[in-house]
């Protein structure tokens, strides 16, 4: 029988990201924190480091509750399309705070790997289930209370390891393919320009 569990049971913590009471987006040159925004997520379920926004944490405020850790899962819960991403070790070292548009899921790794949650939440079936949870007609929203009741299939440990391996292998292959395609486009553009200018001469 398929093992299904609620996210509330699979995660040690499920919270909404930080509001602007915590931080100031008009960051100084010495800003030592960064903010996770919707634009920070790529289509592969990862965070783009270059798209994180520098912020200053306001005096007297403690950001520790919202700081992202390696293996955390973030779900963009406000907007037109919910999307999930896993937090890498590289991102976790940058003092990144999730904005209030996100839900922060901290998996209990003895039960589930973050890659498994991300893969399912971003799958067609997961997206369909998330759409059913969303409230609001234009700007949709998924609450922390509702995501805790969200059920996901939990594979065996061996299968979870394979999911994680395939998750990262797919992402690396995709990025490599895009890099090759971009290089080919540059070479083709140069050849076209040379041919055009040669014929014109």
TrEMBL record:
<dbReference type="InterPro" id="IPR052021">
    <property type="entry name" value="Type-I_RS_S_subunit"/>
</dbReference>
<dbReference type="InterPro" id="IPR044946">
    <property type="entry name" value="Restrct_endonuc_typeI_TRD_sf"/>
</dbReference>
<protein>
    <recommendedName>
        <fullName>Type I restriction modification DNA specificity domain-containing protein</fullName>
    </recommendedName>
</protein>
<keyword id="KW-0238">DNA-binding</keyword>
<keyword id="KW-0680">Restriction system</keyword>
